[in-house]
Specification:
about 325 residues, 13 helices, alpha/beta, TIM Barrel
Length: about 325
Amino acid sequence: MTSPEYFELISGDKIPAIGYGSGTAWARSKPQVGTPIYDTLVTAMVDAVKAGFRHLDTAEMYDTHPEVGAAIALILKEGIVKREDLWVTDKFHCGFETGYIPRTSGPYESLKLGLSTMKLDYVDLYLLHSELVLLPGENLASYWAQMEKLKSEGLAKNIGISNFSSEKLNELYELATIKPSVLQIEYQAYLQNQSPGVVQFAKEKKMVVEAYGPLNPLTKAKGGPLDDLVEKLSVKYGRSNTLILLRWVYQTGVLPLTTTTKVERMEDVLQIFDFSLDEEDMRLITETGKGHFFRGSIPHIFGKYDEELKKSLGLSE
């Protein structure tokens, strides 16, 4: 291996440097809540761990806790790995739009319910899924107090946030007794900051930044200026287009999350640690990406920053 396969958190715990997601793509394809366990996802997660993934990412809003629990039970029963060798991340569904009322009284109750559903004693990482606090009578301070309680009780080994702007992250950092260890955001070559300065702020505070949507330039934003460059680099390094972009994310110091049902793609993705992009190719991807702006997720929350971000990149009209 040419690269560390873990990032170290402020707690000293080591988080596997690439994660397998049971996220929005699975939430869309899964039958409605209350139906039998979605075996396709269970099989995919078991296959992912067999292929070498050690980091599984889920969330309350995905409604995939039953599948995650079933997959982990099979993984442990078959002796593929021990529980302590598996990293499980979960997230509290704070809400993403006005009018949503959380299903529970807050993150404490939600994680306890999630652990019961997944039949786990703890998760390795628990995140607030967004910066919004929509439950009447609650605020960021009260939510974070519940997160700290979860960590103190050992139900969550580490705590962090997802989809926080730099302003909200700063607010949280000032009030927190136990500081967040992870920030998970959309991060890809066409969106190198979900909101102004947030990646830099997180890294300065020693948080590990995780990227969802790292392959958006190849999927949702196909046809952009990176297409030709990534194709050329794929030939140069003898690696897939997917692997080139995931490696770019990793070499920028960010942990990529991805998913697939195909075992051959899982095995391909896990070659991320077997090669490195040279400095000039990293620069080319970074600068080419900055020349095209694309936001793939939750524009109703973060779209307000688009003009400021475009202006900082010289893309504003």
